[in-house]
Amino acid sequence: MSTILTYTFKSLPSTSKWAFGFSVRPLSCSSQLRAAPAVQAKSKKTLAKPNIRNIVVVDGVRTPFLQSGTSYKDLMPHDLSRAALTGLLHRTNVPKEVVDYIIYGTVIQEVKTSNVAREAALGAGFSDKTPAHTVTMACISANQAMTTGVGLIASGQCDVVVAGGVELMSDIPIRHSRKMRKMMLDLNKAKTLGQRLTVISKFRLNFLSPELPAVAEFSTSETMGHSADRLAAAFAVSRLEQDEYALRSHSLAKKAQDEGLLSDVVPFQVPGKDTVTKDNGIRPSSLEQMAKLKPAFIKPYGTVTAANSSFLTDGASAMLIMAEEKALAMGYKPKAYLRDFVYVSQDPKDQLLLGPTYATPKVLEKAGLTMNDIDAFEFHEAFSGQILANFKAMDSDWFAQNYMGRKTKVGMPPLEKFNNWGGSLSLGHPFGATGCRLVMAAANRLRKEGGQYGLVAACAAGGQGHAMIVEAYPK
Fold it and tell me: How far apart are CA 190 and CA 384, in angstroms?
């Protein structure tokens, strides 16, 4: 599948001037379809800091991630969240009364359970004395939930926090038009028949047009897929390379699933239906079949298709985070330390999906590490083009100097260490839940492969991003 990029920036009408700063180079994924070699154990420093509490992940779980409109379609977000919390309780046997705080991330909120963390916690049997709140930060909402928990523990406010996230794309709020909403509110306030008739007389048929939600930027009115298409063109990433990368993701995910490596997945008995035991979006295809799909966003010249994009997904995740001394006192053997993390933000128009490029060098410098120190990379895959564009940006001195104010590039993650058990393209991407999946994938890979440091990174709507260092707990 090795290819040489032949895509020119004439193919799309609105490509960025970035394309002029990049030399065309191949990005082959073919060798990565083989099993990645185990990381050799290295003698590296620990990232523990004096007078700062060590914070650990005891364990983390997730419901199977399913394509929207399938087995979870009749549920509500708090049902999935409750299932993840229950799975975490069963996995860890943590006493419910020990948990000091619960934080959940979500993006598209169900208005009946706007604080889904609280509703799910009560449903899972946690004490009504345990506080819970919900955060939203687009695709890094679960990341924000985790790091908020880290902050609570580091500051001494808590010892034990449960963090997680949820998204149910099978049932999203569709609102009446603003004019219709205003009329209904006015009608509710009307006290006399005459006042009600006056309000009703203002009704027009176009009031009935619903407001459909869209995965689009409020500030630019551009869909994320459209941005991904422009980004791929700007960085000269071809359609074939995007399809190759997507095939890599699905093939590695299928291999990991077959080998039982996706151990964070817990079965979920869907009420009235069968028990769901595994992700259902993993579908390795062929380049020939993928090539038949038409562009999904910019037509007819675009390169982003349904095959090289993450799909709408339902799912929830949950993670048990503790102060190390608390975990050891309770007899736990943690999986990993949560170390340094950063959040970044940049132009939501042309740099919407470049969060990993900006966050990676910052978190490495904060931790005193280099790319060579990282044994397991886990990046969120929104689109193949997004991942490959980030690779090119990270591997470009020109981009570092002209856009990041840096003298040199940070370098591209080696593919043999990158998303070795699949990613969001194949496993799925419930917006609010993915962050916990990334961290648990890094932690589990480090234990399996014998590495010490993992780097988690993700982009998010609004031009934001996140990166975190995960350090394996000593065996």
Answer: 54
In the block, tokens 């992940």 appear at 57
Q: Is 158 a catalytic residue?
A: no
Beta carbons within 10 angstroms of residue 449's beta carbon: 19
- Assign 379 to helix, strand or coil: strand
Helix (H) or strand (E) holding 80: helix 77-92
Distance CA 190, CA 290 (A): 57
CA-to-CA distance for 436 and 128, rounded, in angstroms? 24
Q: Is 459 a catalytic residue?
A: yes
Is the pLDDT score of 14 beyond 60?
no
Q: What is the pLDDT of residues 247-303, one digit of tens each?
A: 999 999 999 999 999 999 999 999 999 999 999 999 999 999 999 999 999 999 999
Q: Please state whether beta strands 268-269 and 160-168 pair in parallel, antiparallel, or not at all (unpaired).
A: unpaired
**How many alpha carbons lie under 13 Å from residue 249 in its C-beta half-sphere?**
28
Q: Is the dihedral of CA 379, 383, 386, 387 positive or negative?
A: positive
For the chain, how far is it from start to end, CA to CA, in angstroms? 39
Cα 122 from chain centroid (whole Å): 25
d(CA 249, CA 284): 8
Dig out the tokens for 451 from the structure.
């590495």
83 closest CA partner among 67, 71, 97: 71
For 16-64, the pLDDT digits (tens) are 455 445 544 445 554 444 444 555 545 578 999 988 999 999 999 999 9
Catalytic entry in 29, 158, 436, 459: 459
Torsion angle defined by CA atoms of residues 321, 323, 329 and 330, in that order, rounded to the nearest 10 degrees: -10
Given a contact cutoff of 8 angstroms between Cβ atoms, the answer to whether 376 and 471 are in contact is no
Q: Residue 432: what residue type?
A: G
- Number of Cβ atoms within 10 Å of the Cβ of 385: 32
pTM of the model: 0.91
Q: Report the alpha-carbon distance of residue 85 to residue 63 in Å, rounded.
A: 10
Phi, psi of 432 (to 5 degrees): -80, -5
**In whole angstroms, what is the distance from residue 386 CA to residue 228 CA?**
6
Q: CA 108 from chain center: how many Å?
A: 14
Contact 295, 304 (CB under 8 A): yes
Catalytic choice (29, 139, 158, 436)? 139
Length of the chain: 475
284: CB partners within 8 A, 6+ apart: 247, 250, 251, 254
